[in-house]
Amino acid sequence: MKVVCVGGGPAGLYLAILLKQQDPSRDITVHERNPQGSTYGWGVTYWSGLLDKLRAHDPASARAIEEHSVRWSDGVAHVGDLTTRHHGDEGFGIGRHRLLDLLATRARALGVRLEYESELTDPPADADLVVAADGVHSALRTRRAGHFGTRTTSGRNPYIWLGTSKVFDAFTFAFTETEHGWIWAYGYGYSGEHSTCVVECSPETFTGLGLDRTDEGEGLALLEKLFAGVLDGHPLTARSGASWQTFRTLTNETWHDGNLVLLGDAAHTTHYSIGAGTTLALEDAMCLADALRAHSALPDALAAYQRRRQAELLSVQSAARHSAQWYENLPRYIHLPPHRMFALLGQRHSPLLPYVPPQLYYGLDKAAGRLEALRRLKRWLGPRAARALHARTTARRG
Prior knowledge:
The chain is built from 13 helices and 15 strands. The chain is an alpha/beta fold.
């Protein structure tokens, strides 16, 4: 089988690794239009569930990724001058550049050819399988947008993806009030020297602060001033060409056409506020590799891949929509006590939250948590109580 992957991001590289592992005789080439070592973005996040899947599919790359990741288990919210911290699940951060380098090294070691500064806009005629892993603006998908049923919707809030030398020790949220409304940042470490810092606000705040009219230097200086309390004097930096934008949610009714199949952001996007983009791209690669191993006929494999991934993404895409809407309706929650606001921030994926008064929802959620704790205690005590009763009964009979 000759496989051509168009796009050298996490999805394309990891699929090449898995397919070459399955059958070393496969002829696999990854084409990336950008030079080697150039990438957008700063760091990416993932959770322990992804690491378990990576270990199951390719232990070597999983070990390398884990070794080069930073970890955190706390979340911190700064709301004006108030701060609240909560302990949660363990999270991981890794630089996007580092992740791509690790995957490229592993792919080469397995015999995958990597062609940089190589842009393909038409599927090669001699390939058995062509994988469009060329991102949200996929040229291969765009040429057949009618067949794929591509739809995009734009979010409301402007955002910008930045970096900083401030290393956050927890996943950090910072909400700052201005005379034009609230502006907020999400920050997380991805190495021992750097963190990602995504800044977002409403359109009214964006224009009120003049961020639509400032140049890059003026804009960064203003943001550094607004978030001085969490940056601790560290600067914000922007990649070349970085700009404010609104998030585009992309979906496709169909994910394959003949021997062409969509992967990662070329197939779907999910709002950055749930931190799942890279995870979903890697899971796409796992699913497609599994389908190609399980089905000898290519049409059957591609159909199975599409069915499974579209079904798995339903809940994730719903969570992402509600998460984006939570931030778009921030004034509804921001004046709660910080610990309550942070609790509802953690519940932002709920479809009920927009329709229940925030204070009431918080109270109901706390009550439900106590009930669940009681249920867990009963399940734990039940067998022990039964054994104790049996022991006492046996002793009396003796």
